[in-house]
Amino acid sequence: MGLREFISEAATGGLFPWTAQVAAAERFGITFGQVEEAVLQRGIMPARYQRNRQTITVENQLLLCRSRAVIIGSGGLGGYLVEELARLGVGNLVVVDPDIFEEHNLNRQILSSPALLGRPKAEVAAARVGEINPAISVTALQTAFSRENARDILAGAHVVMDGLDSIATRLELAEICRELSIPLVHGAIGGWYGQVASQLPGDDISPSLFGNWSESRGVETRLGNPSFTPAVVASLQVAEACKILLGEGESLRNRMIYINLLHMEFSEVMLEPALAAVGE
Predict the structure, then answer these.
(1) Which of 144, 138, 220 is nearest to 187 (CA)?
(2) What confidence tens digit (pLDDT) does each residue in 166-218 have?
(3) What gap in Å lies between CA 75 and CA 99, rounded to an integer?
(4) pLDDT tens for each residue of 21-63
(5) At what angle are helices 3-10 and 32-41 packed, to 10 degrees?
(6) In the chain, which residues fall in CATH 3.40.50.720?
(7) % helix / strand / coil in the chain, to the nearest 5?
């Protein structure tokens, strides 16, 4: 019996259970991710995604399985980005973060815990993905993103997720994504507040990101961040990434959403379209 026949026999009601996924990987000597892709190619949904079916089709789930997302930063925003992208089924994740977990991270960073203090954030992120969705391939890079390593880090990316806390590095990331024509989903947080925007190929959101803010780090250095702000903003970022990867819905192109959780207000600001210099 080949893999195709195994999948057909093990599927029930258009779903392929995790136990069968494990058995297939062992029997045919392939990865969980390879099993998942083969299942989706047969028009069958891995059972773990069955609650996606009314929102994300099998064909779109296959697109997610074959997608590569790069998450720059694995802290407050980045931890939630990793968690949600893995549960969504984005098949290849690259997690970039030079830092280790410290005690002040415990109030908001979903991947942190007292037992993990001192551990590299990127390494912990990869281990977490292995626990919740072993079909996802994760590359953990304990390094700081910079122009020097950017092209290697972003190679093959279908979308880049901004989980940074440095304004200079955020602007550099946006510039490099423009140069490489890779969609970027920006998110930033501070206290009760946050913002989300998408930069698609040909666009430039840099002039609109931080206005006249002159400090090297964002407003979170003054306001701090409670547990709920990164969860909300990262979830909006993942929704944006999902739409971009699937080519569905309407993205935040030339728009920025501002979130005020203190007064539970969401406002939209139209951004002045600014074409990237690349290719002009």
Answers:
(1) 220
(2) 999 999 999 999 999 999 999 999 999 999 999 999 999 998 887 655 555 55
(3) 9
(4) 999 999 999 999 999 999 999 999 999 999 999 999 999 999 9
(5) 70
(6) 67-270
(7) 45, 20, 35
pLDDT tens, position by position, 111-125: 999 999 999 999 999
How many Cα atoms sit within 13 Å of 202 on the Cβ side? Answer: 3
**Sequence-ordered list of residues with C-beta below 8 angstroms from that of 21, at least 6 positions apart, any chain:** 32, 35, 36, 39, 46, 135
pLDDT single digits (tens) 228-261: 999 999 999 999 999 999 999 999 999 999 999 9
CATH number for the region 67-270 comes to 3.40.50.720
Total Cβ atoms within 10 A of residue 256: 18
CA-CA distance, 102 to 196, in Å (whole number)?
26
CA distance 266 to 256: 10
Contact 36, 61 (CB under 8 A): no
pLDDT surpasses 60 at 154: yes
**CA-to-CA distance for 89 and 62, rounded, in angstroms?**
9
Distances (CA, A) of 97 to 23, 26, 69, 146: 34, 33, 14, 11
Instruction: State whether residue 102 is helix, strand or coil.
Output: coil
